Amino acid sequence: MAVASEIDGSASMSTAPQSPVIEAKGLDLTFQTNDGPVQALRDVNLTINKGDFVSFIGPSGCGKTTFLRVVAALEHPTGGSITVNGMTPDEARRKRAYGYVFQAAGLYPWRTIEKNIKLPLEIMGFDKAEQDRRVKNVLELVDLAGFGKKYPWQLSGGMQQRASIARALAFDADLLLMDEPFGALDEIVRDHLNEQLLELWARTHKTIGFVTHSIPEAVYLSTKIVVMSPRPGRITDVIESTLPAERPLDIRDTPEFLEIAHRVREGLRAGHAYDD
Amino acid sequence: MSAAVDPATRPGGAGLLSRGVSAVGRSLLPILVVVGVIVALWYAAAIMMNRAWTLDQIERRGLEMTTSEIIADTLSQERPVLPTPVQVATELWNTTMGEPILRERRGEYRPNPRSLFFHAWQTLAPTMLGFALGTLGGILLAVGIVHNRAMDLSVMPWAIASQTIPILAIAPMIIVVLNSIGLEGLLPKSLISAYLSFFPVVVGMVKGLRSPSGMDLDLLRTYSASGGETFWKLRLPASVPFLFASLKVGIAAALVGTIVAELPTGARFGLGARLLTGSYYGQTIQIWSALFMAAICAAALVGILGLIERLVLKRMGFAR
Lengths: 276, 320
Prior knowledge:
Distance between the termini of chain B: 24 Å
Strand order of the largest sheet of chain A: 5-6-7-3-8-9
CATH architecture of the largest domain in chain A: 3-Layer(aba) Sandwich
Structural class of chain A: alpha/beta
Structural class of chain B: mainly alpha
Number of strands of chain A: 9
Number of domains of chain B: 2
Largest sheet of chain A: 6 strands, mixed
Strand content of chain A: 15-25%
CATH superfamily of the largest domain in chain A: P-loop containing nucleotide triphosphate hydrolases
Strand order of the largest sheet of chain B: 1-2
CATH superfamily of the largest domain in chain B: MetI-like
Order of helices and strands of chain A: HEEEHEHEHHHEHEHEEH
Shape of chain A: globular
Order of helices and strands of chain B: HHHEEHHHHHHHH
Strand content of chain B: under 5%
Largest interface: A-B, 23 and 21 residues
CATH architecture of the largest domain in chain B: Orthogonal Bundle
Largest sheet of chain B: 2 strands, antiparallel
CATH topology of the largest domain in chain B: MetI-like fold
Radius of gyration of chain B: 26 Å
Number of helices of chain A: 9
Oligomer: heterodimer
C-alpha cells in the first residue's frame, strides 16, 4: 500500500540522491496480551530519507507510536526488517542515532533545565566543558537562553516541551523522533511551537519523525505524511507534500494546503471503514 | 479581581507576613477549641473515675463533705485513677525543670535518676541509633527488592510477617539472647527499635524506587543508560519524597520500639522504665508524665524530620 507514495512523490523539493535513514520492509509487530495477540503493526513498508520531515497520523491504536518505538529500539518487531542509518535499531541507539521526544516533557523535577539537558550528556560521557557548551547551544536553539537555572515547574508547558526538545538535540543525533510532543498543549502555543520547530528543522537539517493526531499540524510541518489505520496497524497512504519549504502560518489557508489536508482526511476515513 | 485585593493580602513583602499571621490566627481557633474540649472531657473523666476512692474514704472515716469538696478531692488525690492535666503538668515540670540532670554524689557528678530529661535521653539515644539502623536496613532491602526478582518474591512476605509478631513477646528473648553473647545497654534496645522502624522504610522506598513512569525509564533506555545510572539518576532521586514520608512513620515506631524494649527487661532508666516503676507503685501521675514525655519526644522527632524534609525537597527543587 505504501507503494502509492513513490508514484506522486516526484514533486518533492530535492532531487539530490538521498540515502535512507529509516527503511522498513514488511514490518510486523504482534503484542501478546492477556486478551490474546494484538497486531500493532502489519506489513509496514516505509522509507524515510535524510532531511525528511515525516508525520505519522491516524487514530489511537493505529501503531504510529509503536512504529516510532520500533525505530528507537524500545519495541522489537516480530517480523520483517527495519534499518536505521543502515544498522539495526539497537546498534543505531548505541551509536546515538536519534533523540526521542515523548508526549510529556518528562523533565526530572529535581534537576534544573540545564541539568535536565545534561542528563544524556552525563550518561554519554561528555566532559564538563563540552556539556556546558552544548547546553548553551541547544538552549539558544529552542529559544530558552537564560532559563537554564530554572526548575521545570517554573516553566510553562510549552517551554517545558521545548526544553525536552533541547535535551533530545543536545548530543547531535541526526534523527529526531517526536511522539505527539505538542499533544497536551493548547492550540495557540502549539502553533507557535510548530513554527519554531520548522525553523529549527531548517537550521539543523535533521531528519524528523513526528507522530500527531492533528491533520493541520501534520500538513503544516511535513514533507511526507504517513496515514495509518488501526486493527491491525498499517499504512493506508503516504502523501508527499507539495508545499514550499518556506511556510508561514497563513499557508494553512491556501488551496494547496487544504487539498493535502483533504487527502489526509480521505485516507483516515478509508482506514476507518473497517470499524463501522 | 486583583485590583480589589486588599494590599495586606497581596503576595510579597509585608503582605506575605500579615497573610502568614492571619493564617495562624485562623487555624489557632479550631486548635484551641479541640484542646479545650479534650481538657474538659479529661476533667470530667477524672472526677468520675476518682470519685469512688473519695466516697470510700468518706464512708470509712465517717466524714461529711459537700459536693464541691468531693470534686476538689477527686482532682487532687495522690494516686488517682486518672490524674488531672494540672497534676501531670506539675509532675512534668518538677521532674524536668525542677531537677538537675546531673547531681553530685560522693564527689563526682552522675546522672540524676529523678530527672525526666535523663530518662528521656536514655530512651532517645537507642531510638535514634535504632532508627538509623532500621532506615539503612530498610533502604538496602528496598533496593534489593526492586532490582532482584527473587528478593521481591521472597523478602517482602517475611518483612510483612515480621511485623505481625507482637514485639512485646519477642523483645525479652532478643534482650536475653543478646545479653548471653555479651551485648548490653544501648544496642539491644536499638535493635528492637530498628526492627519496628525498618518496615515503613522498606514499603515506602520500594514504592518510591518504582515511582518513575514507563516514559521516564524509556527516556534513559534511549540513552542506553546502565542499571546503575538508572538507579542513581532516576530511581533514587525520585524516591526521596517517599522516603521522608516513611521516615516519619519509622521514627515514631522506633520510639515505641525502644520503650517496649525497656518494659519486659527490668530496665532501670528510660521512659519505659518510668512507666514500669510507675505501675509497680501505683504512681499514675508518674506514668502519665512519662507518657507525655514520650509523646513530646515523638512530636519533636517527627517535627525535626519534617523540617529536614522541607529543606531537602526545597534544595532538590521539588518544592514550589
